[in-house]
Amino acid sequence: MTTRELIKCYRRTSGEYARREDERHARWWGERIGHEPVSALTSNLITTQLDRLGNHGRSPSTACFYLRFLRRVTVWATLMSYLPADPCAGMDLPKERMPRPRVLTEDEETRLCTALGPPYALWVKLAIETGLKQSEQFTLRWRDVDLHGNKILLPHATTGAVSALTISPSAVALFRQLRQIHAPSLWVFPDPKTPSRSVNIHAFYVGRWVTAVHRAGIPWVAWKDLRHTCGVRLAKRGLPIDDMVRLMRQRENRQAYTYRAVEQGVMVRPKPAASPPVRFADLSEGELRNVMLRDLDRKPLTLGEAARLYAVHHLRERPSREGFERIYRQFWLPWVDRTLNSLTRKEIRAWYLELAHTR
Questions:
Q1: Full-model pTM
Q2: Which position among 18, 180, 248, 309 has the lowest Cβ density within 10 Å, counted as fewest Cβ atoms?
Q3: What single DSSP character describes residue 150?
Q4: What is the per-residue pLDDT for 272?
Q5: Correct CATH for 106-263 of 2.40.37.20, 3.40.30.10, 3.30.360.10, 1.10.443.10
Q6: How is the chain split into domains, by residue range?
Q7: Which helix (H) or strand (E) holds 146?
Q8: CB neighbourhood size of 38 (10 A)
Q9: What per-residue confidence (pLDDT) applies to 161?
Q10: How far apart are CA 203 and CA 356, in angstroms?
Q11: Among residues 313, 319, 320, which one has the least CA distance to residue 79?
Q12: Across the 359 residues of the chain, what is the mean pLDDT of every consecutive 10-residue run?
């Protein structure tokens, strides 16, 4: 089996949801090492290909995306016995310092809106007021906008679950202006020539947006920078971090703290690297052989031995291993010498109820 065939098999049968960039990453790896047999996949070969990305001017974060995709493939292939060992195991993801976000000043916003003209200036103002992503904003339909309730409905990109976002009175006023300016359509941002379909955002971005930025005479600004501008202005109003995360629909608080640091004029410094956690020691071949050949009827496995086997030979280098070993050290050390068949359901249930009571 070649690497190209392995990638195709993974995408067809892994059962994982397809990510947006998987097709591009799969094609890139197929062009570079697709002809190589899976037995030739090594860490050195993978590292060499990633280094070529850097030689062509690609950032470390780009190389990180490519490596993440291949790592999912090799982990799945190892579990399915297509590979004897995971060649990506132990390979650290490239690190890159988070860049300072580009934020528009009020003067730059005015100049950009003037260069764009109506109705596109309203698009920019709405993006800054709501913090919507480009994909969220230009796929909005009027049925998802409740102007009387000051809410809009946004589907999640992967799960499809719909969440309600409360918008400000200023955003409601902008939506009302858009409804008056645009031709009647199901879409909030219809195509100017064909209102029955949504706007071709690529044509707008490549044509009118790039031209307007140059005419405005301001440093380059991308559409995502409008979202950053919204975050920094929320921080400038003194909004609490939790409220910022909720309004911006972010999974972590880190970006909200970044916006607050930009507003205060503080350079964002990366956190110092944490010391590596204490981990189970790998089993030597002799120890593993003794466990596998042991008469379990006479000498059953203890909880400590089972947890070590599970962490070392099943979880291996997966991110979930750190969480498993942390839970083991925090809760299960009193049972480390207990045999598995001596643990009763009543004991486990009592431990769980006590844990739930203390949370």
A1: 0.53
A2: 180
A3: T
A4: 46
A5: 1.10.443.10
A6: 3-79, 106-263, 285-358
A7: strand 145-146
A8: 16
A9: 72
A10: 54
A11: 313
A12: 90 77 88 88 86 75 85 88 85 68 89 90 91 87 89 74 84 90 88 86 85 90 90 86 82 78 58 57 81 82 86 80 82 85 83 60
| Residues contacting residue 177 through CB under 8 Å, at least 6 positions apart | 122
Report long-range pairs for 198-205 (Cβ below 8 Å, ≥24 apart): 198/138, 198/139, 199/138, 201/134, 201/138, 204/120
- What is the rounded (10 degree) CA torsion for 264, 240, 163, 181? -50
Query: Is the Cβ–Cβ distance between 7 and 26 less than 8 Å?
Result: yes
**Secondary structure element (H or E) that encloses residue 277, with its range:** none
Q: Across-strand partners of 153?
A: 164
Helices (H), 168-319: 169-181, 201-204, 210-216, 224-236, 241-248, 254-263, 285-292, 303-310
Architecture label for domain 3-79: Orthogonal Bundle (1.10)
Closest alpha carbon to 187 in 128, 131, 145: 145
What span, in angstroms and rounded, lies between the C-alpha atoms of 98 and 64?
14
In contact, 340 and 299? CB cutoff 8 Å: no
The helix (H) or strand (E) run that includes residue 67 is: helix 60-79
Residue bearing tokens 């000498």: 299
Query: Angle between the 3-13 and 60-79 helix axes, to the nearest 10 degrees?
Result: 80
Q: What are phi and psi of 192, to 5 degrees?
A: -60, -35
How many whole angstroms separate alpha carbon 167 and alpha carbon 145? 10
Q: Is the peptide bond before 119 cis (omega within 30 degrees of 0)?
A: yes
Residues 19, 157: Cα–Cα separation, whole Å = 10
**Sheet-wide strand order for 145-146:** 145-146, 151-155, 162-166
Report the SS3 class of residue 280: coil
